[in-house]
Amino acid sequence: LTNEPAFMWFFTGVNRYRPDSAWLKYISFYHDSFDVVAFVGTWCPDSRRMLPEFYRVMMASSYPMNRIQLYGLDRHLKGEGGAEETYHVDKVPSFILLHDGKEIGRITDHLNRSMEADMVSILQRYFMPGQVSAPETTQ
Prior knowledge:
- The protein has 139 residues and is α+β, with helices and mostly antiparallel strands.
- Helix content is 37%, strand content 17%.
């Protein structure tokens, strides 16, 4: 995505997005505790908006990038290998967070607050059930 002129939207989006540092601290704290499987369509406006935001958040939180599995799907939500069926993907984008190979939550075609805040919400529900609290925001 970073080397093809047709995907300039990705490079531009990654550089433009400014995630909230308080949320990033939380993601960074747990970055060794979860994996991500992402399904996107480069034809999809939501994927074009959310994929760069996702990558910016992951880079800014020092997430190990080799632990992200990224799958491109066509307009029928089909891709090579059938991973979309394994994960029951019915929307793009879908960012699925896993712990020990089991899904702990997913972010799909719209955000409740922001990419980083929605990720933290998933992590808090799983790692700190009953103790969910929002970090102080800087924006």
